[in-house]
Design goal:
Blueprint (H helix, E strand, L loop, with lengths): L1 E12 L2 E12 L3 E5 L6 H9 L6 E6 L2 E2 L5 H6 L2 E4 L11 H7 L7 H14 L1 H5 L10 H13 L5 E5 L7 H18 L2 E6 L5 H4 L2 E6 L2 E7 H6 L2 H7 L5
Parallel strand pairs: 3-8, 3-9, 6-7, 7-8
Antiparallel strand pairs: 1-2, 1-4, 4-5, 9-10
Helix pairs in contact: 3-6
Bound molecules: adenosine-5'-diphosphate and magnesium ion.
């Protein structure tokens, strides 16, 4: 079943067209890897789905509901959870408190507190440090924390913007291992946005390449990374 359909959306910031009739779709339980150079419109795509920036044309359907024009919290309530770029943790709050912030939007607060334990079982490293301030965590641990916080909303889909940015390769592998475990063991749908396509091989599934606000290539992640079409399209060789 298709969980998310983005159909021909355009976004403008003043005079600048950041997205030009971009379309993607993600099936339940699969992962879609979105890559492309800086400024391609990847983050804008996530923000448009999340309802943070308005679209000028096109349609977005999430979990069977047309969501374009809805408030971000209403879209989140349908099961869309976004982890923005930059790993924004509340460094003065404890890890426990940071995770509880993710409960804010849920009506069933008691159940949500139980889910805290579920998140801790996914991230034992966070459980061990639950009463320490988030500011003491390394970059990789902070990435785990923001993913954990997104999970507290019990999402159907997690959209994550540049999870690798600024992390050491070993730590990136750990972050991906966790994401893939959530996908494969719990059926969590993943929408991963990265400027670098280095980890696309690892995730498998489908992949799209964006450039200048457009989706220019789409296919099986492993096949695209192996061939040279991706490299050519990434850098725009053969354009006219
Ligand atoms: N808030 C904003 N105001 C004006 N221009 C923006 C804003 N956010 C992004 N842009 C521009 O929109 C384009 C797409 O940006 P973005 O979606 O961040 O791309 P990516 O995530 O692929 O690097 C870029 O040209 C960027 O400079
Ligand atoms: Mg970006």
């Amino acid at each position: 079943m298709t969980l998310l359909t983005v159909d021909g959306i355009s976004v403008r910031y003043g005079q600048l067209t950041a997205l030009r009739r971009a379309s993607i779709s993600v099936k339940e339980g699969e992962s879609l890897f979105v890559t492309g150079p800086n400024g391609a419109g990847k983050s804008t795509l996530l923000k448009a789905i999340a309802g943070v920036v308005p679209i000028r044309e096109g349609a977005i359907t999430f979990a069977g509901t047309a969501v374009a024009g809805k408030a971000p919290e209403d879209i989140a309530r349908l099961g869309f959870s976004m982890v923005p770029e930059g790993r924004d943790v509340f460094s003065g709050l404890t890890i426990d408190e940071n995770l509880r912030v993710g409960v804010g939007m849920r009506a069933d607060k008691d159940a949500a507190i139980r889910d805290l334990e579920t998140v801790y079982s996914v991230f034992p490293m966070l459980a061990e440090r639950r009463h320490r301030p988030a500011g003491v965590l390394s970059g990789g641990q902070q990435q785990m924390l923001v993913i954990g916080r997104a999970l507290m909303a019990k999402p159907k889909l997690i959209a994550i913007d540049e999870p690798s940015l600024g992390l050491a390769p070993k730590v990136i592998d750990d972050v991906y291992a966790t994401l893939l475990k959530l996908r494969d063991a719990q059926g969590l749908t993943l929408l991963i946005v990265e400027q670098s396509s280095a980890r696309a091989m690892l995730t498998g599934g489908r992949m799209v390449l964006m450039r200048s606000g457009e989706v220019v290539l789409e296919g099986d992640a492993r096949e695209l990374v192996r061939g040279d079409a991706l490299k050519k399209a990434y850098f725009g060789y053969g354009d006219h």
